[in-house]
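Objective 1.3, modelling of assemblies. Example input:
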Amino acid sequence: MLKISNLTYQFSPHILPLFPNLNFTLRKGEIYALLGVNGVGKTTLLKIISGLLKPSQGKVFWHDQNVYQSKKILRQYRTQVGFCLQDPEHLFFKQTVADELKYHHVGNIAKIVKQFNLEHLLNYSPFELSGGQKKILQLAIMLLKNPEILIGDEITAGLDAKGQSLVAKNLQKFKKDHIVLLVNHDLNQVIQMCDNFLFLSSEKFQLMTLTDILKYPDIFQKFGLIPPDTIKIGQELIARGILLPDTIYSNSEKIAQIIATLINQKKAK
Amino acid sequence: MATPLLEVKQLQYSSEELIDLNLTVKKKEIIHQVSFTINHHEFVGLIGPNGSGKTTLSKLLTKIIEPSNGHILLDGVDYVDFRPSWKLHQEVSLVFQQVSSQFVGTDFITDLTLSLKNFGWSIAKIENRIKQLTKQLHLKSLIKRPFRELSGGQQQLLAIAEAIAVKPKLLILDEPTAQLDSENTFLVDQLLAKIFKEESTSILLISHKPIELSLAQKLLTLNQGTLTGNYSTNEFLLDSSLLKENQLIFPATLAIRDYVYELTKVQLPLVDLSIKSLIKAIETVLC
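Predicted structure (tokens):
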């Protein structure tokens, strides 16, 4: 359990804090999405949570211990956090993809290679991979290290459909015994992939489950965000009296099923 | 027939990697025999799965790297004969996928001033252009702040502003909104539409996002370094099998149309990928 208590950050004493005092708890078995407009401080918050940046105020508790209490505790904590950067290139330094994987893991890498379809890339230099392939490699390395807490900053940005579903599949598996926290701008994907949502703005903060946001879709607009397409479609159809209010339309399939039922009813008449 | 703005003929590129000190090199062909044209004031989308060579192609088109074989012509002039050669970087401007590699200066004003000075612009002309751009793109709050204080998304908006600043004939954007949230993606897409409407620039947009690609007039598909198709935009974007084949992120509107068809054999008549079009189609079918 990771507990954030009374936390905030100021770039300098003259600038207002980035976000309000934050209090929340992250648990194993869940994928959390951190949502907010660009520049609200999502990356900064990820850095604080992962032990890379000391907060101006407040504490980060891991197993009831403040991770910023001493250098020793902080070092120990960092070994349990896997951080996937927005720009994965900063992580790489070996000559081949295979060496890169072996460096981070003593033992068999065959399983992870298969899991992420890396077979045909093993002899390439990590630096000559495409942007999307670099992101996949970074995640593979992080999962090999098996961290207690996995943090990802835009790990699916720029991935094609296949890459995105590969990442989603692997995270679903990984989350069972771990905490996963993601920043992801593609809200259509976020609501397919995540279980809990941390909404952040400079004035307010709210933690919601998937059911919560389907019930209160206005939450996106409240935080300056454009809602995911399926939510927008649901809202439009409710407004036109085609779908019933107070019903939860979580994905395209559900919406399509109801439309199909309506079409079939019309046909029967 | 008028000369196209950009003509790519039988383009080929192999990367070379130095294996040992005997100068043994390993060659790998990344782009094979690619040919296409972009006309004056044309908006073209480029699609391809991860690792298909999209970024390499955009580097070739901006002469960051040189082809192993083949030719690229701008207004009928071969890139290798282009004089003065620096002028090419003004005529063809690129926005990178990784924004951080784009900036040299510490903030927008410094960085853009530096780059425009290199192209021989006077200080007065530069100041004027910055003022104009800032207003057009609503960037006032960002231009004086150091890049390191800005978020990835904010940096991307500035990178696009810089690329437009030199008034290029061809603007190439390599997944410009991959790192942006939907709000800024919307701003960037609106901006691209505006630029295309108001200026004479041609645009080559590389993207995985169908909605964004709908701005283009035609779409090229690249797969494993080979050009595999040339489509009109709507024909491509409304065709589920083409989207899947090219690993595009599947839009919710199309997913709903396809599920409904599976369940009822009734085809919702979408005219484009917008939510508006879906709602209208549903109303038409139900009323």
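Chain A touches chain B through 56 residues (CB under 8 Å).
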